[in-house]
Structure formats: structure tokens, C-alpha cells
Amino acid sequence: MEHLRLIIIGAGPAGYTAAIYALRSGLRPLLLEGTLPGGQLTQTTLVGNYPGFPEGVEGFDLMDNMREQAERLGLETRSATCLRTDLSARPLRLWLDDGGELSADSLIIATGASPRYLGIEGESRLRGKGVSACATCDGFFYRGKTVAVVGGGDTACEEASYLSGLAEKVYVIVRKPFLRASRIMQQRILENPKIEVLFEHNTLELLGEERLEAARLVQRKGEKDEREYTLPIDGFFLAIGHKPNSEPFLPWLPTDGEGFIQTEWGTTRTSLGGVFAAGDVADPRYRQAVIAASSGAIAAIEAERYLNSSVGCNPRLSILSTSGTF
Ligand code: NDP
Fold first, then answer.
1. Which mean pLDDT values do the consecutive 10-residue runs of the chain (326 residues) have?
2. Strands 146-150 and 235-238
3. What is the spatial distance between Cα 214 and Cα 50, in angstroms, rounded to a whole number?
4. CB neighbour class for 265 (10 Å; exposed up to 12, middle 13-18, buried from 19)
5. Kind of pairing between the strands at 235-238 and 82-86
6. Distance, CA of 111 to chain centre
7. For ligand 1, is residue 180 a contact (CB within 6 Å)?
């Protein structure tokens, strides 16, 4: 079994930034890339709020630059996903989907989050046949067609705006009588003539055999005012938030009700010494690339201090007890 001082799990802004900081501090981390090298930003278009890019930057390019920067510093990567861990003893142990097994003194978990689905009838059957959680990946197939986006947050507005550049008509299905998105994003879709927001609507079922043909919707304005109808659509895009990719660590680390790894306030420290969590997997609130990147930097600084401390050097001392700080 290969042993490393530091393993970084995840190849999004948090993982690459952690790698850049760790490499510059003299550590030689291994970064596990998982199934989506570059993370969620590779699935988006122009990122307008990452500092340092006055004209904005394509999400894919931003991640490509981060990877290149880390590789120039000598980053070693492995194209594998961590399926299972044993963090109960030292060294920390990881089992990978390529059959490999690794051990480490320290771990930075930067596994990000994945899109949520509604769990309604027809949704999983029609996935890839009209149902998608990524407009930038699949929008191309809906040129001149009618699509719906479900959700009322920034992601839904961003996806709807993007799709309006391709599709003939875009419905946004929102369960509340208002949007949760930021003002600028709300304005963008409410003023777009191709977009129609269906407030107080829920999707009951998706219809179609070979491909998506329609969505069965219900409009609820009050307890007694309820109307069900079928809306013909070609594409149905989920934008109802994300769930953290924390499963391999659940037996060992405290999480909140939704599975986000809990860290000590203002740090990336988890309840286990030497185990740090950075980026969306530990961030139920903000989900911003710049915040993920900065928490990756914090994690690497903390990992370096941990590994160079007497605790990190002495495996017998390296599981720290915590009491109510998470
Ligand atoms: P949010 O959690 O902000 O919004 C999720 C939306 O989905 C809400 O409108 C919610 O409705 C709705 N929803 C959740 N579950 C269901 C359900 N079962 N049925 C129907 N609707 C449902 O997620 P986002 O992904 O939009 O954003 C997450 C974070 O990322 C936010 O902080 C956001 O600001 C940020 N972000 C920023 C961007 C930017 O700055 N460019 C771009 C994208 C995201 P309800 O309101 O009723 O709960």
C-alpha cells in the first residue's frame, strides 16, 4: 500500500488551490481527481465574479489554469475516486475505484457537491433523454426547442439565461411566489422575453417513453386553489441546489443534516486531527469558487502546520479529541 504524507481528494478550486499551497510549502501531495477533473466550474460558462478577471473568465479555462499552475509546481495526480475510508486509526486509509489502496498522515477533503434531483416519477428514466442537471453541458441539444428549468436560485436563473440563447422558450418552475436568486439574476430572467417564470408551481411527474415529452405540473395558490396541467417540453433542467460529496467520510466525521462536513468555525479543521475539509463539501452557505479556493489555501496551510508539528509527526497523538466546537 502506497503511503503519502498528504492526500488531497478533489480537483475543483479548493483541491487545486490546496495543492498549489502545499507544493509551495515543500509538501508533495497526491491529488485524486475523481470523475470530474476541474469540478463544477467546468460545467459552467462565463464566471464573472472571480477576482482578477475584469472581463470574466470561462469556468473551464479558470480550472485549466489552476491545474496547469499546480502541475508546473510538480503536482502528482491520480485519476481515481475515493470510495471508502478508514479514519479511525493512523495512518488514514483510503480505498479507490481503480482498486488501489492508499494511506496518509493527513487528508484534505475537497470533493465538492453534486446536483440534487427531485425524485419524481420519470426523472431517472429520462435522464439523458431530456432530463439534465447541466444546461451548459446539454443546452446545445435544445436549439429552437422548449425547455423548463426548475428552481428559483442563482443557478436556475443562470441556467435559464443560458438556455434562452438556444431554446425557443424557457419556463422556470418555482415553488414559491418569489425567486430566491440575487437581484441582478432575477432581473435578468424577468426581463427576458423568451423566459416565463411559473411561480407557485411544482412538478409532479415527467412524461415520455423514449424521450421527455411533457411535465405534469401543479399550481398551488392556496389550500383550495389548485390546478394540475400538462406542459409540453423537450428539456427539463434541474437547478434545485447541490448535495455534498461526503459519503466516504460519513462514518468518521460530523456533518450537518444535509451531509456537509462540519469544520471548526473560521478554519478547515474537522473533528479529526490532520483531516481538513475545504470547498463546497463543507460549505452549505456560499458555494462560490473564490471561497472554495480560499478554503483550499487555508486547508493546505493547516495541513502543513499539522504535519510539521509534534502531533503530525507522532501517529500516536494524531487523533485529536474535540468538544462541542463544531
Ligand atoms: P439555492 O439553494 O440558492 O436555490 C435552490 C432553489 O431550488 C430554490 O429556489 C429552492 O426553492 C429550489 N428548490 C429546492 N428544492 C426544491 C424542490 N424539491 N422542488 C422545487 N424547488 C426546489 O441553490 P443554487 O444552486 O441556486 O445556489 C447555491 C449558492 O450558489 C447560492 O448561494 C447562490 O447565490 C450561489 N450561486 C452563485 C452564482 C453566481 O454568483 N454567479 C451562480 C450560481 C449559484 P426555495 O427557495 O423554495 O427553497
1. 96 98 98 91 82 94 97 97 97 97 98 95 94 88 97 95 97 97 96 98 97 97 88 98 95 96 96 97 90 98 93 54 38
2. parallel
3. 37
4. exposed
5. unpaired
6. 8
7. yes
Cα torsion through 235, 240, 241, 247, rounded to 10:
-80
pLDDT attached to residue 322: 39
- 214 close to 235: Cβ distance less than 8 angstroms: no
Spatial neighbors of 209 by CB under 8 A, at least 6 apart, are: none
Predicted pLDDT at 310: 60
Q: Which is it for strands 242-244 and 113-115: parallel, antiparallel or unpaired? A: antiparallel
How many whole angstroms from 224 Cα to the centroid of ligand 1?
28
**What is the grid cell recorded at 304?**
502543513
**Pocket of ligand 1, candidates 62, 287, 288, 291: which has the most ligand atoms within 8 Å of its Cβ, to mutate?**
287
List the catalytic residues. 134, 137-138
3-class secondary structure for the chain?
Answer: CEEEEEEEECCCHHHHHHHHHHHHCCCCCEEECCCCCCHHHHHCCEECCCCCCCCCEEHHHHHHHHHHHHHHCCCEEECCCEEEEECCCCCEEEEECCCCEEEEEEEEECCCEEECCCCCECCCCCECCCEECCHHHHHHHHCCCEEEEECCCHHHHHHHHHHHCCCCEEEEECCCCCCCCCHHHHHHHHCCCCEEEECCEEEEEEECCCCCCEEEEEEECCCCCEEEEEEECCEEEECCCEEECCHHHCCCCCECCCCCECCCCCCCECCCCCEEECHHHHCCCCCCHHHHHHHHHHHHHHHHHHHCCHHHHCHHHCCCCCCCCC
Q: Angle of helix 289-307 relative to helix 59-72, nearest 10 degrees?
A: 20
Distance 146 CA to ligand 1 centre (A): 22
Query: What spacing in Å lies between the alpha carbon of 183 and ligand 1's midpoint?
Result: 13
Query: How wide is the angle at C-alpha 36 spanned by C-alphas 164 and 138, nearest 5°?
Result: 25
